[in-house]
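so my prof wants the structure for this chain in the C-alpha cells format not the other one, which i didnt know existed until like an hour ago. anyway here's the sequence
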Amino acid sequence: MSSRSSTAGSSPPGARPGRPACHARRSTRGDRSRSARCPPPRDPVGPHAERSDHIGSVARCPRIAAHLTGLPHPPDGVGRGRVGHAHYRRRVGSPVSEVGVKRLLVALVVLVGVLLALDYGTAALAESAVSRQMRTQLALTDDPDVRINGFPFLTQAISGEYRSIDVTATHLSVGPLREVEVRAQLRDVGAPLSMLLGSGPKTFTVAEADGTVRIDADDLQRLMPGVTRMRIDNIDRTTLTDLVDEGAPSSLLGVDLDSSARVVGTIDVPVLGEKEVSVIASFLLDGRDILIVPHDFRIDDGHGDRVPLPAALVASLNERFTMRISPGTLPFEVTPRLLRPRDGTIEISGTIENMTIGGASPLAQ
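here's what i got, hopefully its the right format
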C-alpha cells in the first residue's frame, strides 16, 4: 500500500487524507456552519505535506489562530484567513493603539506640568515686583512677604485684576514704636502684568484694604522706664471674678474683656526691692492715639501668689503704667477702628478704600 494510503488509514474515522484532526471531528459531528468558516485546505504534496497542511489550516481559520495566539475568538461573520483575523485583531485592540494612548497621557501630564510651572513662576515674579514696591512704600530695610491669592494666577494676570494680595512686614518704625508688625490684605487690586514685570515705576490701585498693626511687649517696655521682662497676658471673666473675691473693687467686673489684658513686668518696688507686678489694664483708642488705663495692681509674694499692693505704692505705679501712645499715621494710612490685646501683643485694625500705591500717591511720600 502506498504511503498516501497508509497515512489515510491512520487518520480518525471520517477524516479525509491529509486533513487535520479538527476537521475530522467537525466533519463527524456534522457541524456544517463551522466547516463553512474553516475552508478545507488544498491537497498537500511533498515530503512535509501533513505539517504544511496543518499550518495552512491555522492561517486560514481565524478560530484556530485565535486559540494558538491567545487572542479572543472572532465572532461569527469575521472574514477568513490572515486578512480577516488581522482586521479583527486591530478592532479589539492592538499594541499599537495602546502605545498611542500611553503617549497621549504622557503628553497631557507634561503639558499640565508646564502650565503649572508657568503659573507659579509668573506669580513669583509678580509677587517680587509688589514686594519691592512695598519696601519703598513703607521705607523698609527688607522686602516684605507678599502672596497673591487665587488660582490660576495667569487668568488674573491677563486681566490685570487680582482678587486678593496679602502683605506682611515686620520691624517697622511707627512714631515712638520700633518693632511694629503690619499685616494687610489688599482686595480688588488693579495692576497690569506688563507694568509689574517691567523695569519702570510701579503704580497700582486697591479698591479696599484691611490693615492690622501689632505692637509687642518689647515696644511697650521701652516706653515704660524701669520696667523689665514685660509680657501681655489675656484674661477672662474668671480672672476678674477671682480678683474681686480677693478684695479688688467690684467695678473690675465691668471691664471690657476684648480690650483689656494683664500686663506683667518686673520693677524695683520701694522697700520691697525687685518684684514682679501684674496690672489689669484697658487699651483704648482715642482718635489715632492708644491709651493704657490700669485698674488693679498685684505683686508677687515670692511664693507664686499675687497679693494687693499697699495704697501708698499703688499711686506711684498707677502713674507709671498710665500711658498715651501717639504712633501718628499708620502704614497704608489705615484709620484705626479696633484695638485689642491678642497673642501677647496689642493689635490695631482698620480699613481703607480706594487706595493708590506708588507713583504720586500720598503713600509714596
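also thought this was worth mentioning. The chain is about 35% helix and 30% strand.
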